[in-house]
Amino acid sequence: MEAFRIVGGTRLQGDVRVPGAKNSVLKLMAAALLAEGTCTLVDVPDILDVRIMAELLNRLGCEVAYEIGRGTLSVTVPSGPGHRADYDLVRAMRASISVLGPLLARQHAAEVALPGGDAIGSRGLDMHVQGLQALGAEVELRHGYLVAEAPRGLIGAEVRLEFPSVGATENLVMAAVLAKGRTVLDNVAREPEVVDLCRMLRRMGARIEGVAGSTLEIEGVEGLHPVEHRVVPDRIAAGTWAFAAAMTGGDVVVRGGESGHLELVLDKLTDAGAQVSDAMDGFRVVGPQRPRSVDVATLPYPGFPTDLQPFMVALMAVADGASMITENLFEARFRFVQEIARLGAQVRVDGHHAYVRGVPGLSGAPVEASDIRAGAALVLAGLVADGETTVHEVAHIDRGYDGLEVALRGLGADVQRIGVPAVEPI
Ligand code: EPU
């Protein structure tokens, strides 16, 4: 078991580079299943979730080669891949369900273990299932697996999502590109990662109109061909660095960061007293001496991303004043509040609202990461806490961040990865 040991008190300064987005690359890897041959993805981060998806594709009969230094990952798909995603992998990474749509489209059958709840909430799949059923699939739950079949192939249909779910939009787009006829998907997610997927699919030969809007019109084609594709920059990693600068009163240039994907986030940071400006190949954030309080509510893109909510709680924990943070997507995302409270943050949670009363300083303590973003937010809190903070269970952080502690050290932070012996009960 590993942990990060952080000694707080450094003002972060320097340049940091953002890799391709985790939440895009995982779906692009799944999309490779739609064509026989080799798809190559560029700017792929070296994170645990990419390795889990690679293992999943391996078990489906694909060959995955990853050149870490160059961030290049290629997926070679055979003419007849398998169609089952095992429980051990889906359990380890919920995004495994994004193979459901492509397998059903290409193999006309898919068996994907049903993911349970996770640390950020119950996370339903009803929209994925109803959408695939509308495209003609029969879907049922058998022995803990979603078993989907469309023996004569999928057929285009009109589907209106109840909520712009990222995962359901992606699964349905990947299913519809090889369906017979025309599919109209309404009220879809517009996250940059969804747009990235649509762009790659179009380059593979898919016919998709309305990309980046709320309605996608897809004309099914007979087959797709493999391509090389550069992954969209990780806006949540870029946002993490923006918060890191804002929290520590630092001065950080986020290279490769797409500020246009973070407009509302950067506006909120400006309201909190940070200075944000354009920089060559990215943007620069200079943090205030002490942040001002601002209110935030999470919403689907282009709203404030739920993935950056824990960072906002951490920033507001040391702000001058009180603020209200509202979580509208994942009900359990405030669980980490109990951990940040160990550092002295004053946060009261009431349903999906967190009322944060800023304090002048936090004090270092051992804490535990419960998910990727909560873990990274605790690391940032440790950077401004007095003394030493140990963030346990960093495997969660490694799922989504490519060498977080190395990049932090590059900006001057005192952060070490340490081994923690497991406690053996007598
Ligand atoms: N939902 C349903 N039914 C469905 C689908 C979703 O009720 O069929 C609900 C969920 O329970 C949730 C809401 O809709 O309350 C939003 O879920 P969505 O489907 O949009 O999210 P996701 O696809 O499961 C992705 C990211 C998350 C990110 C969300 C929201 C990946 C692998 N994950 O999840 O990222 O928070 O979109 O933007 O793309 C992370 O990176 O740490 C992470 C959790």
UniProtKB/TrEMBL annotation:
Ligand binding (phosphoenolpyruvate): K22, N23
Top-level lineage group: Bacteria
Residues that hold UDP-N-acetyl-alpha-D-glucosamine according to the record: R94, D307, L329
Main location: cytoplasm
Alphabetical keyword list: Cell cycle, Cell division, Cell shape, Cell wall biogenesis/degradation, Cytoplasm, Peptidoglycan synthesis, Transferase
UniProt function note: Cell wall formation. Adds enolpyruvyl to UDP-N-acetylglucosamine.
NCBIfam families assigned: murA (TIGR01072), PRK09369.1 (NF006873)
Name of the protein this chain belongs to: UDP-N-acetylglucosamine 1-carboxyvinyltransferase
Gene designation: murA
